[in-house]
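Subject: sequence -> structure tokens, single chain

Hey, anyone have a minute? Need the predicted structure for the following. Not urgent.
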Amino acid sequence: MLTDRQKLILKAIIEEYVTTNEPVGSKSLTEKPYLTYSSATIRYEMQHLEETGYLKKTHTSSGRVPSEMGYRYYVDHLVIRDEVVSEYFQYVDDILDNKLITKEEAIKKLTNFLSDLTGYYTAIIGTSSELAKVLKMEIVPLESTSEAVLLIVTSTGDVESHKIYIPQGYKMDDLMRIISMFDTAMYGRSIYEIRDVLSKEAAKPRIRQMVDFQDDILNFMIKSFENFLKGETYDAGLSKLFSQPEFQDREVIQKVIAAINSEVMKSFTTQEIQGIKIHIGSENLCNGLEECSIITIPYAINENEMGTILFVGPTRMNYRATIPLLEYVANSMKKLDKR
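Reply:
Had a minute. Here:
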């Protein structure tokens, strides 16, 4: 349990270090008007914060820097949202209110704006269609009597198409009967439920008899519904992230790139996120991101279109400004409804 004085000193050290990226000494703290303590008292408390794991001492300076434990305590108990960041909210509104650009263009512009503003890697992970419902499966015959296009349409407007070749000995009517059975079984079902529905329908005798169709159709359906679940990702700012002093080592950069391209994106597109989440350093559980913090927040354009906004930055992230900025953006994404 930290005393009020220790909390004030820890908060001051973290916010000073976020700004300067230099170890913080007692002298600079005595110059802060809200720390009305002697230099000796501040040094004593800094020593205590180091011994209890909230601060670390560097080898090259007598000052201290925050530890992961210190950042975690700060984020959970001490951070106060910076009201200054609200001056940038109008820029967010200008992008999202612009009816002259498409939804996709707005999201892309917003991603670039957030990255430029913060200097962090920014991703707006496209809406997962997991909660979307299947509206229609339909066969569209082509000029050739042996070819047709299979369409799958969802309630969010997503469409997948696939050319089907009709095996010798079968007719277009045979294919239409199969698709009609699947269409009836899957209508109104969410994408999340589809795999079970497909398995049950494929086991029915009338479909199993048409084995030449079955594999082609089922493989297409499975692939299509996987595409619906992926969603699209708009990202920007890797070069800005690597301009931060923490990322000057080539090996560190390579590890961060590998993590962002695989583990991070995969984990944040498949897990359900409720509210803003902040993962600091080793909390990320991703090899290569030990020096990073990841902040995520869910957004909803409407009841069917939902996704995640993600920042990757150094653990020395400006949490005071980043948290209210992300909260405002996530809450404003509903402006893209019906675009």
